[in-house]
Amino acid sequence: MNGLGYGVDGLSHWFVGIGMPAWLAVTMAVLLLWIAPMLVVVFPIAALGQIFERKIAAAIQRRVGPNTVGLDGPLRFAFRAILCFLPRARQDRVFAAFCKLPVVRTILKVSQRLGLGQLVADGVKMLGKEDIVPSGADGLVFRMAPYLALVGAFVPFCVVPFTQHMVMLETSVGALFAIAVSGIVVVALKMAGWGSGNKWSLLGGMRAVAQLVSYEVPVGLAVAGVVLWCGSMDLHVIVGQQYQPGVFSMVGWNLLQSPFLLLLAVVFFIAGLAECQRSPFDMAEAESELVSGFNTEYSGLRWGMFAMAEYTEMLLIGALFATLFLGGYQSPLCEEWIVGLPVLLETFVHLALFVGKVAVTFLVMMWIRWTLPRFRVDQVMRLSWLKLVPICLVCLLGLAVTMVSSGGTVLGAPFGRLPASPHADLGLIGRLVAWAIPVAVVLGLVRASRKKHGQLHPALRQLTGGGS
Amino acid sequence: MTIEAMTPNGERMTLNMGPHHPATHGVLRIVVESDGEVVATCTPDHGYLHRSIEKIGECIDWPLFVPYTDRVDYVCAMNANLAYCLAVEQLLATDAASAVKVPLRGECIRVLVAELNRISSHLVAVGAMAMDVGAYTPFLHAIAQRELVNDIFEKLCGQRLTYNYVTIGGVAFDLYAQASEEITRFLDQFEREMVRFNKLITTSTIFRDRCASVAPVSAAEAIAWGLVGPNLRGSGVDWDLRRDESYGLYGQLAVRVPVGQCFAGRHGKVGDCFDRYVVRLLEIQESVRLCRETLKLLPPPAVKANDPTGGYQADVSRQLKKPPKGEVHCRTEAPRGEMGYFLVSDGTKVPYRVRCRTGSFSAAGIFHKVMRGIFLADVVTVIGSFDIVVPEIDR
């Protein structure tokens, strides 16, 4: 209709059908399908991510974490703003009565226990801070960098399918687009490091560029493996291809299709961690070495944008991981029934499943951050070029060999509104061979390297509670 | 090719690490000249925490200096107290008339608190080193355990950091009731906790690879540069004053001394950062054992009627008014290595000279040598592995 993708086309068509003018229909559809997922799904989760992270870190470190600031402060403020025509005492009385409602009381109590108000408090604090541009800084570059970081983190989401009907852009270059656009972050970090006029920032920016450029290679290769397997770069087609009718729908997920894909998933996750500068790859802002790396000189809201970009990028890695390897928004069990539900209910269930999957990867990232020490610069480079890239290449080769030797393709099941797409047809014996041989090789390699590297010094064994 | 040959001076960048850098453990300033990520030269700059403690010692009475020794090294104040008190007792012993005999209970309590403080000091060392390498969680777990030691000390003397507990002739207060049970309970849970700590960080491959072969110091170099304590033992030199020049109760305890043996395995070297780190962990284990042994030796408190000083403290007020003339140097094994006091007495109630020698001072001396040609990220690892406590350097 107007070429803005399935969702916008379909929805604006429906709006026109109920009697809206065409321009309003398109605008509404764009707002609902392109902007709303950002504002409703990505933005709040990225913001809540900081609270989650603090709570999780506290749990790992046996601390309490934020547990004092609830939402009653912001709520009181909202009441005063809305009831500004009443005297102060009346406002407070209405507010007190509202807080006594059982539901509200429970929510307030829970939010206080979780320290949710900390989010608002931090936001207000950041807004109130002075926006400092150091005297040695390159003003324009310094000011531009946070915006670019945000753009690089948010824009790739427009090709990620959130649900069957909530996908902003179904394009045949989706996977490529996501990787390419997230590369903008490199420029942003480099600008931040260079523009700050601070040697620590400069070092952080240099590290960031070296690291991000290196790790884009394994990320790209891992995505290429999935593309090779699915025969399409459209992320929504990739999701549709992982559909498996029946009760155990997770059998169809790419993760479980081949050991090579499993390995690629691991590589993608590790390289993704490096892409969003998370520990153990947080060299660019290594606190104990570079003070705060590229964002040392940033204050207030600009710093907040960098933090936001970091969490958004984590979400992006989680979303791409779910889309490419975990069947996107599909349920692990009984997907067949869910896809047959009424549209609204189906959208809701799928969205919840998708957010759940992203949240799990998010959690794992935090768990890793608060457990592992940081790599050194040379070790990071070596990991990328000498370990991850060769693993990716071997996996790609293995996938190609599997597909060539499988003997043709078979048409899969159509998934919702997505048409059926061809799968590699392995057959029972092919499946056994494709799994057994690589798994045996990997196990053998692991055992050999254990033998070579894994011998602990007796003193260390004694320190960890083993026999002396 | 050396780093000097690779980069002419103009291409280097001077970085000012500290005095308020998060990894310099206080107020140490290190001027780093780097070629990108590689350190070319590294010059420690001291003096930001100088408080003239030695000069103060020349102005006040012998026993009044003890609180100042707390401030020489506030991470192991008990050991610092002990070093000074032992030195004064040694001075008094140069004359048979003024010699004091510390009661056995006092000796036991001294060893107990010294070893507990060694544990808490090493916990800060290994925790801070883990944090310098980028692992935040082990640091907090270590600090949580240190808090438990501080709880015990607080019940013992009312302080959590600067104890002023060991006095000339004994200790200031007797053990509180149930102290032995409480210490035993702490040690039991502490050992379990350390196993978890070591599983979390010590055997982590990333941590091991970060520390292996970084800034190795050979045994000969360590001796030549005057390293002491765990830094010396990390280089494989089997030397511990508690065993080799034993003082106090240590002669009866048969201290076992761990030395560095290339714990990192294939990629490590003897005397690298990982060895220094592991030696501290092994010393923690040894201190736990010593605490248990000491608790077994601990005699019951003296009956007030027989002994007016309570059996934990000898009365030295008479001797300190007119100590023998002369000079004495007494060294002890503090967590950061030898802590020695050189005292000169002119026979009055005020010392003529108090000189303190500390472990961090000699460790800071070797910085500019071991930090040449390493990565910038390793600078903080090296600082952490030498366990610098800045007030000890500056005094």
Summarize the structure.
Chain A is mainly α and 468 residues long.
Oligomer: heterodimer
The radius of gyration computed from the alpha-carbon positions of chain A, rounded to a whole number of angstroms, is 25 Å
Strand content of chain B: 5-15%
What are the low-pLDDT stretches of chain A, counting only 5+ consecutive residues below 50?
Answer: none
CATH superfamily of chain B: Cytochrome-c3 Hydrogenase, chain B
Structural class of chain A: mainly alpha
Remind me, CATH topology of chain B?
A: Cytochrome-c3 Hydrogenase, chain B
Secondary-structure element series of chain B: HEEEHHHHHEEHHHHHHHEEEHHHH
Major sheet of chain A = 2 strands, antiparallel
Q: How much is the average pLDDT of chain B?
A: 85
Structural classification of chain B: mainly alpha
In spatial order, strands of the major sheet of chain A run 1-2
What distance lies between the first and last C-alpha atoms of chain B, to the nearest angstrom? 39 Å
Low-confidence stretches of chain B: none
The main sheet of chain B comes to:
3 strands, antiparallel
